[in-house]
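Late entry, manganese (II) ion complex.
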Amino acid sequence: MTLLHTSSPPDGVVAHHPQGFEQPVRSESIDLAVVLPTYNERENVAEVVTRLERALAGLRWELVFVDDDSPDGTSAVVRGLARRDSRVRLLHRIGRRGLASACIEGMLATSASYVAVMDADLQHDETVLPAMLKKLREDKLDLVVATRNAEGGSMGQFERKRVLLSSVGKKIGHAVCRCRLSDPMSGFFLMDRNFFLQVVHRLQGGGFKILVDILASSPRPVRFGEVGYRFRNRERGDSKLDLNTGIEYLFLVVNKLMGGAVPLRFALFSLVGATGLATHFACLAVLMTQFHVAFFPAQIVATYVAMTENFFLNNLVTYRDRSLRGMRLLVGMVSFWLACSPGAWANVIFARALLQSGYAWYLAGIAGIVLSSVWNYSMSSLFTWQMPRRRPATEAVDGVVANRLSSFPRGMAGYR
Ligand code: GDD
Ligand code: MN
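Prediction complete; structure with ligand written out below:
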């Protein structure tokens, strides 16, 4: 680890000392900040710092790790690194998950003129950063993307499935990005801070695809450049990309196409609700036709079967960042039934009232569904899926941490 940068004030800034002496202020404004989101990357962070230090020699830089309270104790390892080199910083988020929001908050936590985002798992080639910075400055661009699909770039040994997924994502991304980037799925890019501040209030912030979010949020055409790089294989730790990432991406696109009107979690909740509707009707049909159950009891059973299905799907998809397990799963299911029961009744009563006031049956039906969705969403996010709290990880001693973490539910007073 090198020593702190202590050269003479480059900007020649002078300030008035209280006793009347003129004293130079040490101004060491940072050129480049690299934001590194981490979730369970304790085995990679030390190496990524070493490599970045080598790649960024000669520049004034800082690294901002944004860790979402990784169960493997990544934050403690980063804190250990930061104690040895103050250019390494840590933003430790508790009760939060999400790659895109981690990147955004990391970028907001620095005052460097240029901000890069890079994975912390050694898959992104840090040696292209100086070339990216040079391009951004010389061509006066807003954004430079390290791309796997341009000259000098490659997907590396990406599985065919991932290559295909990436190209489908790219096609969808073009619809909202309004610019023809060769790799809008990239999680490796560099931005002018002023440009970032222009778009930051419009960002959706959900999911994995922060670059698409940024491009789709720009109020004007983005001046961008590209630099090719070869995507490396992951040697340690696991990828966090999964089916949910894909669903979140689709929602990002839909959200952007609709001008950002629908919050991501509510959109996911509604999608899950739509599958519940299918379950409800299937159940109702089977009970009435196969088992000759009367409509009213059949309707009640179908409602609770659909609710149960919704509970498990929401636990897997909508609230995967705080999904319940073990005993808490059981308690959560009961609280979901309780939270959603008034919603189901409200649905029926409201729809019937509208129908009686002369509205068409389908309008009455839709209004009932909207009412109960908003109710169910609000109640279940308050009572069923509260943010879990973790006990703090044991501090790192020279990068070694004891991994003794456990989760426990937040008390009733801690609702947000
Ligand atoms: N703070 C935080 N919170 N970090 C996260 C989270 C999260 O919820 N999920 C993932 N990360 C971190 C990982 O620790 C890693 O440093 C980085 O984000 C990328 O996650 P991976 O799980 O390694 O993703 P990937 O390799 O499958 O995909 C990446 O590379 C693609 C190609 O460049 C991502 O960057 C994609 O966005 C990118 O398209
Ligand atoms: Mn990765």
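The chain has two domains: 2-13+26-262, 264-384. Will revisit in the morning.
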